[in-house]
Amino acid sequence: MIRFATLMDLDFLAMHDTHISQERLHLAIEENRILIIEENELIGWLRFSFFWESIPFVDMLFILEPFRRKQYGTELMHFLEREMIIQGFKELMLSTSSEEYSQHLYLKLGFKTVGGFFPTNEPYEIMMIKKMIRKIERG
């Protein structure tokens, strides 16, 4: 099941998502910018923000080790894409380390590499974007 995070998830997220302060996590939860995937237990999460305050940007996609390579990341990405299309967005952006396997997932999901940069003391960061298309339901 995928759902938006609640304040009940804050302690777990603060313990595992060390790239953001607890105060910012709290705000992201209040703004419905964190998705949780779970099946009897928390499996992973997706945290997003907005690039230029206008393009949804995936800040963090994380699946706990025992659950990796089981399509949970794909499910979170599809859920986010549907939500953003409903809200009227046409593009979705993200960045990923050149050393992370996730870049291959994003390419399979239709993202295109549009550039990158070298953060201080970090490996090359790849910038990616996807044009989202609203599928028309026929019935």
Automatic annotation (TrEMBL):
Transmembrane residue ranges: none
A GO MF label: acyltransferase activity, transferring groups other than amino-acyl groups
PROSITE patterns in alphabetical order: GNAT
Pfam families xrefs: Acetyltransf_1 (PF00583)
N-acetyltransferase domain sequence ranges: 1-133
Coiled-coil ranges per UniProt: none
Record protein name field: N-acetyltransferase domain-containing protein
Organism whose genome encodes this protein: Enterococcus ureasiticus
